[in-house]
Design brief:
Blueprint lengths: L1 H23 L7 H10 L9 H17 L4 H60 L4 H31 L9 H18 L3 E8 L2 H8 L1 H19 L7 E8 L2 E7 L6 H14 L2 E4 L5 E6 L3 E7 L8 H18 L5 E4 L7 E3 L3
Parallel strand pairs: 6-7
Antiparallel strand pairs: 1-3, 1-6, 2-3, 4-5, 7-8
Helix pairs in contact: 3-4, 4-5, 7-8, 8-9
């Protein structure tokens, strides 16, 4: 009982201190501003928000108290900023899924068109067999072969549809949908089995400029080459690990390692970036003639590991931390790999060969 009373007194004192701070900052009493500011202050305890979101909301809170603009117009603008903070982690994911869905629909339509022709051929072949003269048993055997052939094609289509759902059409590695599925399983193992989990995000430097200069056809070739290198990179890990190379979205890629060798991902990522940097890209015309050679690209990469201090939003926190490391690499001049260690004094650590 005494403990409960003490806790209640502490809580009261905390709120009295906050209200005094609000008074000094000129926050109008009996207004929506005070309720919203109290809510913003408590977001540090919301486990479904990422660390980056919590920091952004605290920055927003500090900005409100500094500017001291408590108009209705400013309140509306702050609520919009808060909304943007909440949806930011999902905006890129939705855009990526829309692109993948469009690609899958196009592939499915192409497949349907092909099978429509096969079914028409089956119809013509069946009519020819039935109307032709010959032994009844022989006709039945031919019909069975014809239907069996189309059945096999349809079964192949089902398997292909499963691949279309999780494979990126340009790079032929896992797409964002497949990445999300893999990460759900990896995080579950990390939580239930304490299985180490590391993520690297890699972004092609100045890719838009490269696309503008050389065209999307060449840009797609670059994406395919990067995907091929990443696919080889994850093969360096033993069977004790679950690994993934994926196109995360646009010119951004991901490497994931779930298993005892997850700590090796920074070195493998750096090695992969160095190999891609040395790759000699050729630009060929429609006839295959080399128009330009000696082109090179670089990548900026960020690597991080899952942290037990997280209480929720596990995937979002992992992606945010890898993203922060990647942008630290970009802001350091690009063509760099950086590891983010949030629990250490020096959080951003350059990865060297």
């Amino acid at each position: 009982m005494k403990h409960s009373f003490t806790a209640a007194v502490d809580c009261r004192d905390t709120y009295l201190t906050l209200f005094e701070m609000f008074d000094r900052a000129g926050v109008p009493p009996e207004s929506n501003w005070r309720s919203m500011l109290l809510f913003f202050r408590e977001v540090k305890d919301y486990h479904d928000l990422t660390d980056a979101q919590k920091i952004a909301i605290q920055v927003l809170l500090a900005g409100i108290l500094e500017k001291k603009d408590y108009s209705e117009e400013r309140l509306s603008a702050v609520l919009k900023e808060y909304h943007e903070i909440l949806i930011k982690p999902y905006r890129g994911q939705v855009d990526s899924l829309v692109r993948e869905a469009s690609s899958a629909v196009a592939s499915f339509q192409k497949m349907l068109s092909s099978r429509y022709g096969d079914i028409n051929n089956l119809e013509e072949e069946s009519v020819s067999i039935v109307s032709g003269s010959g032994d009844c048993d022989d006709s039945i055997m031919k019909l069975r072969k014809a239907f069996s052939r189309v059945k096999d094609l349809l079964e192949d289509d089902i398997r292909n549809l499963e691949d279309i759902a999780v494979l990126d059409g340009v790079t032929k590695i896992t797409n964002r949908r497949g990445f999300d599925q893999f990460m759900a399983r990896a995080i579950d193992k990390w939580l239930s089995e304490s299985r180490p989990l590391s993520l690297a995000l890699l972004d092609i430097d100045h890719f838009k400029r490269f696309n503008d200069e050389h065209g999307h056809r060449i840009g797609d070739q670059v994406l395919a080459v990067v995907g091929s290198h990443l696919k080889k990179a994850v093969q360096e890990f033993s069977d004790r690990n679950d690994v993934l190379a994926a196109r995360y979205g646009g010119e951004e890629f991901a490497l994931v390692v779930s298993g005892p060798d997850a700590g090796l991902l920074p070195a493998v990522t750096k090695k992969c970036c160095d190999l891609i940097k040395k790759f000699n890209f050729l630009i060929r015309d429609a006839n295959g003639n080399v128009m330009e050679s000696g082109l090179h690209i670089t990548l900026s990469a960020g690597v991080t590991a899952a942290s037990k201090r997280w209480k929720g939003a596990y995937l979002e926190n992992l992606v945010d931390n890898a993203d922060r490391a990647m942008y630290h690499a970009k802001n350091s001049g690009r063509d760099a790999s950086v590891e983010f260690r949030p629990d250490e004094e020096k959080a951003f650590v350059p990865i060297v060969a």
